Amino acid sequence: MKVDKDIVRHVADLGRLYVKDEDVDAFAEQLGEVLKWADKLQELDLDGVEPTAHALDMKNVFRNDERRESLSTEKALENAPDKEDGYFKVPRIIEE
Question: Are residues 77 and 83 in contact, defined by beta-carbon separation less than 8 angstroms?
Fold first, then answer.
């Protein structure tokens, strides 16, 4: 598929991306290369290959959700740059 400037601008609009006019030609060439490789993948014989979401056999790598000791308030606040009454104190970011 030939990717022209209009396609690049259309894709950019869909993605709500700003593309400088001077970059459109380069993106057209790059997008064309990506689509060429995607077409190349269509040539593969995948009969008998099970669909998968991952290339490797992955298992849940999260730890079990088990209750355990957490930091004490004093330990959590130990390196805080500013604290007050057992809480982190941060600069106000919303004006009244």
Answer: yes
The per-residue DSSP string of the chain comes to ----HHHHHHHHHHTT----HHHHHHHHHHHHHHHHHHHHHTTS--TTPPP-S-SS-----SPP--------HHHHTTT-SSEETTEE-----S--
d(CA 94, CA 53): 43
Sequence-separated (6 or more) residues with CB below 8 Å from residue 82: 88, 89, 90
| Mean pLDDT, 10 residues at a time, the chain of 96 residues | 92 96 96 94 92 80 88 94 95 87
**Tokens 């790598």 map to which residue?**
61
pTM for the whole structure: 0.50
Using alpha carbons only, how large is the chain's radius of gyration in Å?
Answer: 26
